[in-house]
Structure formats: C-alpha cells, structure tokens
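User: Modeling request: complex.
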Amino acid sequence: METILAYSIIGGILFGFFYALLGLGLNLVFGVLKMVNLAHGDFVMLGAYGAYVAYSTSHINPLITILVEIVAFGIVGMALYYGIVPRLLKSHDPEMLSLILFFGVSQAIEALATFAFGQNTQTMNPNVFGNHPLVIFGQQFQTAWWVSVLVSAVALALLYLFLYRSKLGRATRAVMGNREETAASGINVNRVSTIAFGIGLALAGIAGALTPFMLGGIYTTMGVGITVTSFAIIVIGALGNPLGTIIGGIVYGVAQFLMQSYLPSWSAMAPFVLLLIILLVRPGGILGKGARYA
Amino acid sequence: MSESVLDVRQVVKKFGGFRALDGVSLSIRPGEILALVGPNGSGKTTCINVVSGLYPADEGEVLFQGQRINGLSMSSLARLGINRTFQIPKPFKALTVEENVDVALRNIHPATPLVDDPLAFVGMDHVRDRMASTLNSGQQKLLDLARALAGAPKLLLVDELAAGMNPAELRQLAGKLRELASRGVALLVVEHLMGFVNQLAERVIVMNAGREIFEGSLAAAAKDATVVEVYLGG
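Assistant: Request completed. Predicted assembly structure:
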C-alpha cells in the first residue's frame, strides 16, 4: 500500500514537470494575448511526429530533434503571429474570433497530418535514450521518463530565467499585465508578443518530442485532447501565470497517478473533476487571484 | 518648424457612425498646461488616445514638434517624448513598484532624465519594493504618473489623475505638475475637478459632443452661456 502511494506521488511529480511543459506554451500565449490557442495540442502532435519521423527514418536522437524543433517551431510561431494575430486584435471581438480561427488552424493541421502520416498510432522505442533506470525511494523509473522529466525541468528553468532575469522577459511580463500600459512604456508590444508566441510554440515542440515517451502512442488526432489537458493544467495553476502552470502540472500529475493506482477505471476523468473542484473552490487557480498576473 | 509642441488639426475620430472627435484642433506650447474639460462622452479621453497613438485619427493631422505623427504607434510616440497616464491605471501587478518604472526607463532610456527619481518625485519612494498589486487606487495613479515621467516626456498627457484625491493631495499634485511645466514639459490635462483645473491651467478647452465649444481661461469659461448650459450648470 505504502509502496503504491510512494510510486504514485513520485511518479506524479516527475510527470508533473512534463505536464507543466505541456501547459506552459499555451499559458504563455494566453498570458500575452488573452487568447486560447486551440491549435496548441496540434503543434505538440507535430512535435511528436517530428521526433518519430527523425528517429524512424534517420535514427536521430530525440534530444537533437528537440533543438531543431525549438528553432523551427519558434519561427513558425512568429510567422503565425504576424500572419493572423495583429488582424485579430483589430477586430471588435478578438477573443471570440481567435477561438474560431485557432480551431480552424487545429483542424487544418490535423487533416494535413493525417494525410501525411496516416491514421495509425505510432510508438517509439523507449530505450532510445539507453537503459539506465532511475531509482528513487526504491521506486524504479525507466530512462525515457527521467530524461523527459530532466528536459522538461531544464526548459522550465530556462523559461523562468528568461521571464524573471532578462529585459525582454520583464517586458513580456509587462505585456501579460496590460498591453496599453506596456506600449505607453515605450515597448513594442507586437515584437514582444511575436517572440512570446514563438517561444510558446517552441515549448509545444519540446513537449511534443517528449510525448511518445510520456504519453505512449502518438496519433494525428491527439491534438484536441492535449489542448484540453493543457488548458486544465493552466486553469488549475492560474491562467496567465507561468509559475502557476508548474504547480498545476504537478498537481495534475499526482492526481492522475493516484487515480490510476487506486481507482484506475475512473482515472481518465480525474483531472477534469480536479479542474471542476478548483473552478468551484478557487476560480483563480491554486496560486489565486493575487498571483495570477504573470 | 512650429513653436508648438503639439498641433492637433481638424482631427476626426469615428467609432462606427459615432463621431467621438468631430474636427478638433488645439495646440500646446512648451511649458504650458492646457486643460480639456467637458461632460462625460465629450471626447476628452478620445483626444488623448488619438494624440498618444492608442487610436488612429480618421481625419485631420497631429503634429509633434512640427512633425506629422499620424499612424505612429503608442510605443514609438512614448520613445519620441509623448508619455501619458491612464484614466484607470493598470500597473503591472506581477512587478514591484520600482520594476514598473524600470520597464519604461529601460525601454525608452531618455538621453536626459526629466527627474532624477520618478518615484521619489511623486512621493512613492517608501513603497518602491512593494508589489504593484498591493497599491490602492490613488497610489496606482501616482505610479502611473511616475512611469510616464520615466520616459522624460516633452508632452505629458494626464487623464483624470486627480480623481479620488483629498484637497491636500490635490494641492501637492498640482504643485508637482506645475513644476514639470516649469521644466519645459507641455501638459495636456483631462480633468473633471474644476478646483484642481483652477490651480493648474491658464487655458482650458471645453468640449461637448466631440467638438470644442470654448477656449480661454477657466474664469471666462464659467461666464460663457454655452459652457454653463452644457457643462457647468446653472
């Protein structure tokens, strides 16, 4: 009993870093634009297929693919921002239009991916990172897990340093606070938002490359589910607050592991029950109103 | 080259079929304080929003130091020396008070600071390390002013800064704004508190329905039949 509990908590925390990474890109974009990128999960899916195709065709280590995807997804994100977001912001109801538009982007990506990769679920060899399982408090975790957790933690740390230790990061947090006050402070809000959007998609790319090891099989229609999961994570933590997303990811991971261990048949709905409870008890998320400003 | 810091010429701003500004013209010289007064919805804040680049003008011209600035973004204008406060300030609540001002300082980095320490100038030296989310509404307004001053404005647009302040605070604020004017800053002040306007501005423009209905001293405005009818009351 105690062994299962320890496994669930430790595994949940480890997975939590990945879940935080999954939600962070979505939350960064939401924080800066106050728009939900409904295509977020589809970019994660593309990141997953990037890692899968690179490994299955050329035996490229997913860690190398991650570096390529950071650049590629970052550029795509910035191009996507410039292509659509300034026009959205000029409309009378940018939030509603953005939901429709990003849903369209999501469907387009899903259709094109299905055309390119087919409908079958694909898996990757979990020993691609070698076979050096990690043992914590007597619990063994496979190599692919802890490498993915480590990569997630590094990505989170780098994002933290960017947001809280750099001039551009401070400008990004200012945009998250208020776009007009930021512009009145001499900051080019569009430039900062473009970079934030690029970083948001780059984070989706990183999470995507780790997805085959953390979530199992990958398939082209998995994006919608990942977007919903990511949204649940960021709401649990605090919308628009990157630090909240890390807490949200860990809470989500532990809750999921506990349910899988003790009530497996109910585990799929556990995160959403948790989301409902958070929304009812603490609508601002775990970090609450005082900390939801970024 | 115009002597004025700001020239607004026949500016029109429309929201759908509504003309929020309907051919407004005004100019301000360096060191002058011009007050824009008028009933709610008369176009005062819209005028500031157009001059500061938040809204583009639909017709007419806006010139800053003789140069046409129509279409420039608010961030570009802030770097040129047009800085503003907001009627409802929304400071960066995730940042400290000092960081709020630093954001403007580091991005505008004026060649010559207008004041050595904007926070000390507005009397917020003692709260510089506090999170902006903990400030009350009056402090948020003063922080907004400090942020605007960090950009070393040549033209300062002040939108209802005095609302909610007590008489002593109003006198102190009026003194600070006059001190800025004495340093050569032109101030365009939108305000409802006539006592405060009286302490500040030699010249007022009274607006109604997007148009200027009077220009002159506040004392003269108080005697103008149209101004009394639409704004000051009988």
